[in-house]
Amino acid sequence: LGALVLGGGGTVAYLYSQAKINTVGQVDFDNALAVPPLAESAIDGNGARVFRLEVQAGERQFKDGPATPTWGVNGAYLGPTLRASRGEEVAVAVHNGIDETTSLHWHGMHLPAAQDGGPHQAVEPDGDWTPQWTINQPAATLWYHPHPHGQTGKHVYRGVAGMFILDDDQADELNLPAEYGVDDLPMIVQDRRFHDDNTLDEDASFISSIGILGDEILVNGTMGPYREVTTRLVRLRLLNASNARVFNFGFSDDRGFDMIASDGGLLAAPFRTDRIQLSPGERAEIVVAFAPGETVDLRSYPNSPGLGADAPQLRFNGGEDSLDVCRFTAAAELTDETEVPDTLGEAPDLDLDDVAAERSFELLGFEINGESMDMNRIDFGVRVDTTEVWEVVNVDGDTHNFHVHDVQFQVLDIDGQAPPEYLSGWKDTVQLATSKRYRLAMRFSEYTDPNVPYMYHCHILFHEDSGLMGQFVVLGEDEAIGRVPESTGAH
Ligand code: C2O
Ligand code: CU
Question: Is pLDDT at 17 greater than 50 in this prediction?
């Protein structure tokens, strides 16, 4: 199955080289790519847009043979795409229809901590939770997934996740591909492993330092997907929703494409590249041009020439081989009504003359600064309406990234160097190259409550579940850190 090797930080890891990994040429591409439906919503008496989401158990026919028992949202696997505009009030009526305590977290969303859906907003079996907040951030591709303490990996792996697209007027005025399901496609990319009876193989101990790593690639829950496109330009909203695998996306003919958005929304200008690397939780929107009648495959490649020598090292990505992700076939005639403009959104512009605090975070094993996550310990408080700079370092040889709830941050520099262009926009999750110092600037503008924390953590879900996570609160001017109420999901 693989070779036992000793990682740089003394961690024991299996190099994953199982023969049946679907490296290039082993995927038939005989299933039409599923596109998650847009979630229905209704406007309530107070003008809020209300969505209804039920986490439920079901079965999905991924492949020949028996159907696979799964979890999903309003369906058997994954969930509908939520969509709302800047300035809108939204409410989500969440019902937990599975027999385990779960939660739904709005990854990338700027909102009060009590609405965030982290481990303290746990929803018991048969329980309900209705967070409500105002969308107050630029157009972006966000997503939602469970965040129950210690169980996030399992719940996401079984299928609970979906996209949350935000719109705003500025983005609407651009003539980008924007017709959902036609030239604007969600691409929720995940790896999964199946037992011979088609049940999901959930054994996270197989690769001891990284957790679950699949050998089949699914896009929107479709294995071996193909998609016919009918327009010259197509926008792909790429989301790495895997538990651990890092993808380095590119096309089989190495064609260039325009990256137009990162986690927090549009870049200032399109970034022309032929590869884009995403660690778990990260998103990138890209626009690809097709020629009539052609076929080209989206793949994940083992290394990242387009991203420079400093790109974080890829591990557990299929070894030397490329992985097939999705086949695109262009119709014989393509419409051509959209374009990628030279300027897109606003570059991050935080005022660094006025940094209220600097903090440092060292990720090692399953700990941050020598501490493992404790639901009852709030690690620190930040002051509302201030800007901070966080220096984050991955000090072991393992793959880690760093995600902060509530805010989008700016990558100021990496070991003192300006970040590469693909990290120039707003981010909420960044992959950490070993030993490099990432300085992240962020502004906290949502006063919440001294007792209800936000999370920061590694988004390799096995690491998060194993303790590589901490908690912070956003405090008023003279306020002290509070205490996590006993009942808030600590179990
Ligand atoms: Cu997407 Cu705290 O997570
Ligand atoms: Cu990690």
Answer: no
